[in-house]
Amino acid sequence: MTMLRKTLLIILVCFWLIYGAYVSLGTPPFPTPPPDSVQSGEPADTESPYRRGYFTNLSRDEVMEYYTNHLLGIISYRLNYPPEEVVELVRKHTPSSYLEEVVHPLRESLFINGFVPTKPSEQINIDGVHYLNKLTLRYVPSHVVTRLTIWLMVGWVGWGLFKEYVYV
Question: Do 102 and 65 share a domain, yes or no?
Fold first, then answer.
């Protein structure tokens, strides 16, 4: 085996081991609510352990900054969706003004749906307190066994490709 092939094999094995360490990290619990928010007790917000609703006075930028910092991982990024996709991604019949996702690639995601009332009939008043918006969070974790199975399969396929195209 030439020096170039040995170097490439070492790089691929190191990458595979780092990838394995990343996917074997435990799944974080459901994110904490934003400061000064009140959890919703509506049936749609309590029917699943992976979906919760909160009433808050934070703006969209403040909410996204809070959850981006709260879910800060080794690798994370944000995706912005049109509000119409809330039906497929969060829940049917959920009002939406914005919808974003904070993603840890190959691990978990948090969908953040915000509803900001624009009509007088939509105003949010809970226990005599007025709130500017309602957040609906949907947490999508992945099981560590599933991630490790995919990790092993990637290593197996990668080794086959390495043998086929580099190791010849």
Answer: yes
